[in-house]
Design brief:
single chain; 231 residues; alpha/beta; Rossmann fold; Dihydrodipicolinate Reductase, domain 2; 2 domains; six-stranded parallel β-sheet; 10 helices; globular
């Protein structure tokens, strides 16, 4: 049996819970183990839900629980996500995350801790999880030299710019539509200001070159209609 703890129970965290629940039989068939969500860390209460009794509000209840094998971090941001992930690795737990901000800022340090503790730190979902690309770079193409990596790294801005280019929509209208469809967050700053793409570039560049690339050294500009009037 593998016991899992989920850190953060928003859209991503609750999605992880549902996938494990719905595909439990398939996961057992493929792994030979029962996959069980034992604890969920969140600041909120969820009275009357099926996961109500799994909720904890103190990370120590997860870090100090020796029965928990894997921690799934879905909180976002760098703090307290970094501290929680670091402590989980130090306690001998495997960690997986979709948090590109965390990986871009602290990935090298967290990988070092994971190696020292002989546990896994996985972050496939932080960049192009549906492709996938991270394991492809680190395993399938481990012996290759890369000249460049090209692709669409942010679906939100790709949608917005396509609507502007192909249909002549204004930036504001295209963004509002993206938000209504769930493609863009209510606060779209990370996408439209380029922060999301910048962090993904840093992660991919680090993996492709074997050198640490600091996202803060990557020139980044968001969309500003006073500068970009080609649409």
């Amino acid at each position: 049996m593998f016991n899992i703890a989920i850190l953060g129970f928003g859209t991503v965290g609750s999605g992880v819970y549902e996938v494990i629940k719905q595909n439990n039989a398939l996961l057992k068939e493929k792994t030979g183990e029962d996959i069980v969500v034992k604890k969920i860390l969140d600041l909120r209460e969820f009275p009357g839900t099926e996961w109500e009794n799994l909720l904890v509000h103190d990370i120590k209840e997860i870090i100090e629980d020796k029965d928990i094998d894997v921690v799934v971090e879905t909180m976002g941001g760098t703090s307290p996500a970094f501290e929680f992930v670091r402590d989980a690795l130090l306690s001998g737990k495997h960690v997986t995350t979709s948090n590109k901000a965390l990986v871009a800022a602290h990935g090298t340090e967290l990988l070092k801790i994971a190696r020292e503790k002989n546990v896994n730190f996985f972050f496939e979902a932080s960049v192009g999880g549906g492709i996938p690309i991270i394991r492809t770079l680190t395993e399938s193409y481990a012996g290759e030299h890369f000249k460049e990596i090209t692709g669409i790294l942010n679906g939100t801005t790709n949608y917005i710019l396509t609507k502007m280019d192909a249909e002549g929509e204004s930036f504001e209208r295209a963004l509002a539509t993206a938000q209504d469809l769930g493609y863009a967050e209510r606060n779209p700053e990370a996408d439209v200001e380029g922060h999301d793409t910048c962090r993904k570039i840093a992660i991919l560049s680090s993996l492709a070159t074997g050198k640490e690339v600091n996202f803060e050294n990557i020139h980044t500009e968001g969309y500003h209609k006073d500068r970009y009037n080609g649409f």
